[in-house]
TrEMBL record:
<dbReference type="InterPro" id="IPR001647">
    <property type="entry name" value="HTH_TetR"/>
</dbReference>
<feature type="domain" description="HTH tetR-type">
    <location>
        <begin position="25"/>
        <end position="85"/>
    </location>
</feature>
<keyword id="KW-0238">DNA-binding</keyword>
<feature type="compositionally biased region" description="Basic and acidic residues">
    <location>
        <begin position="17"/>
        <end position="26"/>
    </location>
</feature>
<dbReference type="Pfam" id="PF00440">
    <property type="entry name" value="TetR_N"/>
</dbReference>
<dbReference type="InterPro" id="IPR050109">
    <property type="entry name" value="HTH-type_TetR-like_transc_reg"/>
</dbReference>
<dbReference type="InterPro" id="IPR041678">
    <property type="entry name" value="TetR_C_16"/>
</dbReference>
<protein>
    <submittedName>
        <fullName>TetR family transcriptional regulator</fullName>
    </submittedName>
</protein>
<dbReference type="InterPro" id="IPR009057">
    <property type="entry name" value="Homeodomain-like_sf"/>
</dbReference>
<dbReference type="GO" id="GO:0000976">
    <property type="term" value="F:transcription cis-regulatory region binding"/>
</dbReference>
<feature type="DNA-binding region" description="H-T-H motif">
    <location>
        <begin position="48"/>
        <end position="67"/>
    </location>
</feature>
<dbReference type="InterPro" id="IPR036271">
    <property type="entry name" value="Tet_transcr_reg_TetR-rel_C_sf"/>
</dbReference>
<feature type="region of interest" description="Disordered">
    <location>
        <begin position="1"/>
        <end position="26"/>
    </location>
</feature>
<dbReference type="GO" id="GO:0003700">
    <property type="term" value="F:DNA-binding transcription factor activity"/>
</dbReference>
<dbReference type="Pfam" id="PF17920">
    <property type="entry name" value="TetR_C_16"/>
</dbReference>
Amino acid sequence: MTGEPSRPAARRRGRPARAEAAEGPGARERILAAARTEFAERGYDKTSVRGIAKAAGVDAALVHHYFGTKEQVFAAAIELSFTPALTMPDAIAGGAEAGAGERMARFVFGIWENPVSRPPLLAIMRSALTNDTAATVLRGLVERRLLQRVAGELHVPDPEFRAQLAASHLIGIAMLRYVVKMEPMASADLEEIIAMVAPTLQRYLTQP
């Protein structure tokens, strides 16, 4: 017996001090859900890792443990929000005779018209418009997970450029209709929009 007080067991490096219950099953999913909400309501600039942690009921250190920096949390959150759009390459597969332009337009506008998927997309667009870091993260996701795959489905010269032209056309319409809400675009019949846009998309995607 030396009389020295016993030392508490050392915590694992990189782990927060909060109770184990906060680290249990579902903690990562709670953090992601909280991040999506915080970014949607506050935008990128006004959202903090501490605020995300508070909303998820965990320590900020746990957020860092799972995702790293605020930028990395944002990337994970928008990738989750962007999941419905990541199947777009499948929607345009089939060639010119299959109406790729119309299918692409219907697919993209279908996501924007959906009341479940629209709010996260609005949050992403607004964050990217007001913050360079958010714009860089979104650009990387779109290029890596979406446009490169779309280009891989095309059999035309400069497929990457064609994919970007089609995407820019659709994003421009989405900005006016869903973000800026400019009339008459905001209240125009969706079928009329698709009928007018599809031939141009078809030319981008398939015309040699």
